[in-house]
Amino acid sequence: MALLSLRDIGKIYVSDTNVAVGIRGINLAFDRGEFVAVTGKSGSGKSTLLNVISGMDTYEEGELFIEGEPTSHYLQPEWEAYREKYVSFIFQDYNIIESFTVLQNVELALMHIEDKRARRQRAMELIERVGLSSHVHHKGSKLSGGQKQRTVIARALAKDSPIILADEPTGNLDSATSREIISLLREVSKDKLLIVVTHNFDQVAECATRHVRIFDGAVEFDHRLRAAEDAPAHTENQPTPKKAQQKRAFSTLKNGAILGRDIFTARPRLSVFLCFLMIIGAMGIFLSTSLFGGAGNLFKKNYMFTHIEGRVVLAKQSGEILTDEELKNIVSTYGAASYLHYDSLLDKGLYQGITIPADEDESAYRYIDTRVVYGKDYGKDIIGRYPEKSGEVFLYLPIAYRDAVGKKELKLSEIVVGDAACKVVGVKYFVDNNLPAECLLTETGFRAATACEFLSYDAQRSIFLTVTDGDGNTLREIPISDLSISFDMPSDKVYVNSNSYHNFIASEDAKGAEHHSEIDLTIVYHKYNFYGGGETKSFIYSKEFTDEDITDEKPTLSPLIALYRGDGTVISDELAIEIAESVLADSYKQASLFFENDRAAHAAAERLQDAGYIAVPSDTTHELDGEEAMLQMLSFVLLGAAWLLAILFLAFFISLCTARILSAFKGDMAIMRSMGIPVKVIRIGMYFRMMIALIPAVIVVALAALLIFTTPKFNLYFTYLYGFQYALIAIGMLLLTAKTTHSQIKRLFGESVKKSLKGGAEQ
Ligand code: ADP
Ligand code: MG
Q1: 693 and 653 both lie in a single domain
Q2: Atom of ligand 1 at shortest distance to CA of 42?
Q3: Domain range spanning residue 404?
Q4: How far does CA 314 lie from the centroid of its chain?
Q5: Does any domain span residue 95?
Q6: Which one of 19, 21, 44, 758 would you pick to mutate in the ligand 1 pocket, going by the greatest count of ligand atoms within 8 A of its CB?
Q7: Per-residue pLDDT reduced to its tens digit, 136-182
Q8: With contact defined as beta carbons under 8 Å apart, do 396 and 430 qualify?
């Protein structure tokens, strides 16, 4: 059985304008050991014949048999396999990879040699054989035509295939070198089928075993010149054992990786551009992921109340007011640690803008919403200490504020919480800038802040403070939200300062107050309802002051006294709370009890419910009803879809941008295919090239992550991402790489090698 036989092969070229006969009715059979010289006039169909034999071009008529197997049903993948197994091609117009060095071009054809050293050694041998030792590391683009052809010959020799096809291989070499190369070809292909197309038969006459002349697409004559070499017995392909298959898969991967690296480094400028695109892609995904970040919050637990370990929210079934006495009773009966009147602020969240100097000279300020809390423990690893007095505050801030507040020591000594100046005694920083900042106060501080917040800012109320003289005459009526008061005990004077800095000393207006340590404040509390009417209540607040009510410390939390700017002594927060709570006494319909832990809270809540109270542990979750749950699901799905869409858009954009890079590689890919490098290896190579291009993008994202974690400036401007979001970014990048590479491969491998080569040559 002949190695290769052609039966009635015909090839017709059809273009828009005309139809040309390439070859027609060719009947030839070839065997191992033959050296066939193909001659004929220009345009007679010699190249067409070689292209058909090599599987680089299709044929329309007849049948080509390889080792007896018909090939007319072959599709591109089968032709790829055919070329890989059988054919080496030496081109008329070189077709070497211009961006690769001579060594790389030759090593490309030596992929079947596993050992790197052996591969290199063999490549060097072949390069020496074609006389290019001095040009090993020269790029293809820097070689002369003759040198290119020698490289191609070395490459063709490198591949150990049974058929070597050469189309005018010596067309660009001088006659002496031509003879050398022809005999070299002959020497290394003694056991192979060597078909050489030439217009100069003399050059090959010494070695050729057969002479085929083509005329007008058909065989004119077919002469045997001398006996062909005896080819060694051909060993049939044995089924590959599993181990060998695994080994093959591994070497395919390894060769692909090496190829990917070589493609990447061969064209540095294009690769840099590719890296740049991938960075854009990665940062795009980074940003869209941080936008998507909010979606995770949708599935956080829905607590009905702010959950504080051990907290139970308490109210009466009847909706009546909970008095302090009653609460104190409950605390002792049910074993609570403490209680909080007017606790709904815990749930509303008391957000205070705190003002922090943003730069060294304090000319700029940042405002951040801070959740005012108490009773929290941030651990031991803190700067400064926890607050001990009501006017002291401990800050729990995003790392973005580290420069302004202090790295190792506190730089910031005072902040304004709401309206009140507070002394900063400690701070701790966190990196997750999705979390709220917190202002930790003492319990007293918190009560003063919440009570005064309630007094000052509840829109449904307007509260007046009326200063009366000893005889009950009203001297002044000032809305509380517009005022601050202070007491100056040593001189028994009451200062009432309004926000407009219009100060007056009560003791001067209220003659009776002089030398009295007892002050009457009439507080008129007007509560409007939604329908226009309302109720007005007056409280007479009488207090005999003792020294304990007075503090020497200027900073204090109460907005009532926050704007104090005089030299007087300020009332204690305890007193401020007392005043506020006396005003609010009739609105305490709800309170919170604090137990040791949630278990104790649940046990107590049950007992309280049995006793007829509404008692809800604060870890009770609020179940979403069907509609809400659906809405939540929908927003999650929509956000996810938006994220995916953003990725696909980026992928599309990057694919589009890389198309240009691609067309530059198109020719190279076609050459690799024509060399019979397995498509798998080329594909893997392209994936690897993309992976390498991904490295800078990964570094950029990692750097961004690191900066967000450690650098205040970045923490301020970029959203902190969680592990699962970085996983999303990784998935996104892989999707993007896959999509881009996939569309490249589709474009590259969709057509025959001949067509691609032409396209590539046009570059
Ligand atoms: P040779 O190599 O002997 O010079 P070719 O095989 O290149 O000849 O060409 C044989 C015939 O086929 C010529 O008439 C040529 O014009 C035609 N031909 C070759 N390639 C193409 C093509 N891609 N499209 C159209 N006609 C072609
Ligand atoms: Mg030709």
Answers
A1: yes
A2: 4
A3: 346-448
A4: 46
A5: yes
A6: 44
A7: 999 998 988 778 878 888 888 887 789 999 988 887 777 877 887 78
A8: yes
